[in-house]
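Hey, quick one: can you model this chain's 3D structure?
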Amino acid sequence: MRVAVTGASGFVGGAVLDLLLARGHDVVSFSRRPVAPRPGLEHRRWDVTSGPLTDPPTVDVVVHAAAHVDEWDGWAVHRAVTVAGTRAVLSTWPAARVVLISSCSVYPLRAPRPPRQLLSEDVPVTSHHLSAYSRAKAAQERLVLGRRSSVVLRPHAVHGLGDPTLLPRLERARRRGRLVCPGGADTLIHLTDVRLVAKAAVAACEIPCGTTILNVADAQPLRLSAVAAGVVDANGWDVRPLFTGSLAAWAAALALEGPARLARASTPPLLTAYAVSHLAVSRVFDTTLLRQRLGVEPDPTDLSRWHREDAAGRADASHP
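Sure thing. Here's the predicted structure for all 320 residues.
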C-alpha cells in the first residue's frame, strides 16, 4: 500500500511514519522539516499553508497529522495551518481515503452524567472551545468527515519518548522542590501513548471501516497522583508533587491567562484554561469502537517512556 503522511517530522506523524515503514508499506512523507532517509521512504518538503501540491504522488491513503499544536497562538495561525492546510490536503488527493489525527479536545469539558460516565464518539462536539487549537481541530474534522470512507482518530494527552508539548509544560511547573499539579490527587487522567496512536493510524490504513470517528486512549485512566509520580521518576526530577485542587487551578488559570492575553504575551503563563482542562477534570474515553472496528487493543499506560530525547531526537512543537 502507498501511503502519504503529512506532518511527518512531528511527534505523532513521526511515530506513524516509523510503523508504516516497519510494516512494509511504501510511504511518501511530507513536512517542513527533514526526516531521516530510510528504505521504502520518499520525502518531500511541503508547508501545507502554501496550498495544494501541483505534482502530488499517487497514494491509496493519506494520514493527515499536520496541524498547529500550540494552543496559546491565536485563531489566525490555527486557521491557516490546521483548517486551510486540511483543505489543501483534501484538494491534493481528491480520491484518496484520509486518516486524520484529531484530538479529544473537541469534546465538551464535562463527562456525561451517571450511569454513562464515558465519553464516546456519539457525544456532540463542544461549542465552547477553550482554545483556538480545539476550535481548529473541530473545523478540521468537519472537512475530513465530508470525504467518504475517512477515519478521524481522537487521542487525548499524547505521551511518550520525545513529547514536545505536554512534558515541557510539566517541566515549567517545577517550583522549589515541588511539581505543581493543577487538580486533585484523585482526578482521573486518560492518556494516550504515541505508539498507540501510530497503531490506530496504520490499522485505519490497512482495514477499511467506512467513515467513522474513533477514540484512541490507553487501557485505563490513571489518578493524577500516579501520573505525577511516573513523570517524576521517568525524568529523575528531585521534586514532590503538590496538588492544588480543581477550584484553585481554575482560579489561577483565569487570573494568569487574562492579563497575558491582554498583554499579547508570546508565551503562555504557567496555567491556562486549556492546560487545566487536561489535568484538573476527570474525563474517561470509551475505546470500544477502536477495538471493534480496527482490532487495536490499548495497553496500560507506561510512563517510563515519558521523557525527552537527546539533542538528536525528533521534537517539533509547531506544525511539522
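One thing worth noting: Residues 2-305 form a domain with the Rossmann fold fold (CATH 3.40.50.720).
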